[in-house]
Design goal:
The protein is mainly α. Helix content is 58%, strand content 0%. The longest helix is centred in the first third of the chain and has 22 residues. 18% of the residues are buried. It binds heme C (2 copies).
């Protein structure tokens, strides 16, 4: 084989390799749903609030479609739903909608999204909807929410924020024990500050920096500060943590 021919083959290989990669690149249904649909449809499962709804939540839409669109063969179910989504979003109408009359009256028919989203993108969106808004997943999420709601605040926060990666209640670890923090302070104010904004240099024997917990709610931060501060009182009576 001549050198020239070899390079030609190599070049062809590279080029087709490239185009193959391009067509294989998957559309991101989650990102597309967020970009193209979240202006009107709430995407949370379950939605945190139903106030100010301009459209049914995506969860409600998907459960609806799964309920109303029938297929004998379960593997055809997803494809039929995708087909409906691909059509409805471009060409919606009162007669096609599975929404009940009262909801249609209050929301109005969905405005066509023609020109704003392609059929391929809708395919990816429909697949994501089908996989995400799932009865079993919803059940698990609700059970998890109920489990967390039943826990005392401090226990839930310890679990969710992993405070115990660094802190122990009674013993110093890489961070001071909660009981020694409790003994050092007489008000929750500095504790709230430190949890919110992080802390460093206040505890001489600890080199580590405590990161800020920006995503915690004020209620959780205040509850945690109060729980820590009160540990010294429980300690006197040898109460548990
Ligand atoms: C401008 C607001 C708006 C946007 C943007 C929007 N929708 Fe809707 N959509 C609605 C409203 C309102 C309804 C309820 C009335 C109806 O069924 O037409 C609805 C209904 C639907 C339904 C039918 C539900 C049923 O039970 O029949 C589907 C499917 C749907 N939307 C999918 C989408 C998807 C996917 C996107 C993003 C590509 C999207 N929508 C973007 C407002 C919107
Ligand atoms: C990555 C390790 C780490 C994690 C996780 C961590 N902390 Fe800390 N924490 C520290 C260190 C280190 C200090 C001591 C910082 C210093 O010297 O100022 C500290 C100090 C504190 C203090 C005392 C601050 C002060 O003002 O004296 C409080 C209160 C506290 N942590 C609460 C918490 C709570 C509540 C959580 C979970 C929401 C948590 N920490 C998670 C490392 C951690």
């Amino acid at each position: 084989m001549s050198m020239r021919y070899f390079y030609l083959l190599l070049l062809v290989g590279l080029l087709t390799g490239c185009t193959e990669n391009k067509t294989e690149k998957k559309l991101d249904g989650e990102a597309l749903l967020e970009q193209k649909c979240s202006k009107c449809h709430n995407l949370d499962m379950p939605p945190k609030s139903y106030d100010d709804e301009v459209a049914p939540s995506m969860m409600a839409v998907t459960f609806h479609l799964k309920d109303f669109i029938k297929a004998n063969d379960p593997s055809a179910h997803e494809a039929k739903i995708a087909e409906f989504v691909e059509d409805y979003v471009i060409d919606p109408s009162r007669s096609k909608s599975f929404c009940d009359k009262a909801s249609l009256d209050s929301y109005g028919v969905m405005p066509s999204q023609k020109g704003k989203v392609t059929v391929d993108e809708l395919g990816a969106i429909a697949k994501y909807m089908y996989d995400t808004y799932d009865n079993q997943k919803m059940l698990k999420i609700m059970q998890e929410q109920q489990r967390l709601a039943r826990m005392p605040l401090y226990q839930r926060v310890l679990e969710q924020q992993r405070c115990e990666n660094c802190h122990d209640v009674n013993k110093d670890k890489v961070a001071p024990s909660f009981i020694s923090i409790s003994k050092k302070y007489s008000s929750t104010k500095p504790l709230i500050e430190s949890i919110k904004n992080g802390s460093k240099g206040k505890w001489k024997n600890f080199k580590l920096i405590m990161p800020p917990f920006k995503k915690m709610t004020d209620k959780d931060i205040e509850g945690m500060a109060k729980w820590i501060l009160e540990l010294k009182n429980k300690d006197k009576t040898k109460g548990q943590k």
